[in-house]
Amino acid sequence: MTIAVRTSQAHLLPAVAVALCGAMWGVFWVPLHWFGSAGVGGAWVSLLFNAMAVASALPFLLRRSAWEGFADQAVNGLLLGTAFSLYTVSLVLTDVVHAILLFYLTPVWSTLAGRLFLGERLSASRLLAMALGFAGLAAVLGVKEGIPLPRNWGDGLALISGMLWAAGTLRSFHRPTRRVALPVFTFSFGGLLSSAVILAAAAVLGLPLAAPGQLWAMLPWIMLLGLIIFVPPNFLVLWAAQRIDSARVGILLMTEVLFGTLSAAFLSGQPFTLAEGIGTALIVSAGLIEVLRR
């Protein structure tokens, strides 16, 4: 009895942590829009946020023992960091509806990969949670033609980013490390490298994504908000990804859509429709199934 309770709690805390991270990422658009109104391109914000996350992990990596398992974590970090950067770019290159739906196919890729390559069991509760989550996404985002297929480069990047995220979280779960600082460092460094490549490419092509705008004036705010809404979720979601399976992480992160929709409705004056209310309830139900499932 005691062992069962401890096991349940061991899965409950990471699940709640991932759901909270999704909620924080759901309001990520607010500061990005603010920085954008000052002419600061999203590639600069991504670069600086990842640089701060790298710096935040370094004090925990002063001992040589903290670098144990670096090779595995470097691969995980490159996958996850690149996925996050590509997803950010896809939001600029295509409409948000297609980008979000294509990225949040991650539970499908994770479940399929876990079943085909690792022999993971596919439970009825997992299938139900996935069905509710995707139904909620479709309702909230107003998709009438089903899951969209890639139509442009932005759609393609969103789809690829979801696959990379699924691969990264799957490896994180099956190749964990004792401390979270190393996964945070490798994830952030992977994001830093990919953001630098994106920034350089955007600058060569003359895209607004690389526009500096009022970068120096906004730098203190970028650093402050990065320490609030970017660095803490990195620690939480990477700590949790080593304790709960990849598909579950993807389903729980659907709270990003929930809080993104709610924040847009209340902060930007967009109407909150009945369909969005139904979708919200479905997403919450999917999250509860995953949080409470042993």
UniProtKB/TrEMBL annotation:
UniProt KW keywords: Membrane, Transmembrane, Transmembrane helix
Transmembrane segments: 12-35, 41-62, 74-93, 99-118, 127-144, 156-173, 180-209, 215-237, 249-268, 274-292
Segments forming domain EamA: 16-140, 153-286
Xref: InterPro entries: EamA_dom, EmrE-like
SUPFAM superfamilies reported for this sequence: Multidrug resistance efflux transporter EmrE
Annotated Gene Ontology cellular component terms: membrane
Species assigned in the record: Aestuariivirga litoralis
Pfam families, per the entry: EamA
Identification of the protein by name: EamA domain-containing protein
